[in-house]
Amino acid sequence: MFNHRKLRCYQMSLETAQRVPRLIARWPRGMYYLVDQLRRAVASITLNIAEGNGRTSPKDRARFFGFARASAAEASSIIDIASALNLADKVDVEFFEDRFLQIVKILYKLK
Q: How much is the CA Rg of the chain, to the nearest whole Å?
């Protein structure tokens, strides 16, 4: 087993990615730009955590964890836009915001 799978932030990012299809399924067709951006941002969180954890240099590791934090911020802003456009209800917004915040907090500690 790869070590990144043991990281709580990695597990949380996967759980969050699993919930994205349920959210975007309710969005109208014209929102493809947000759908695509959210999918890519959430995938980037997970991928950068795995890649960063696979790095041996502390500097490289921190760099990829930084990318994951930035992707979490991007995904969070997409949820803000979805909320402003009435595409996400309060429960979804709170879930995603909480998850992104928890992931970022864990990543700051992993530097």
A: 14
pTM of the model: 0.94
Overall domain count for the chain:
1
CATH code for position 21: 1.20.1440.60
Q: Which domain holds residue 49?
A: 3-110
CA angle 28, 18, 38 (to 5 degrees): 50
Which element (helix H / strand E) includes 49? helix 32-54
Give backbone dihedrals phi and psi of 87, rounded to 5 degrees, phi first.
-100, -10
75-105 pLDDT tens trace: 999 999 999 999 999 999 999 999 999 999 9
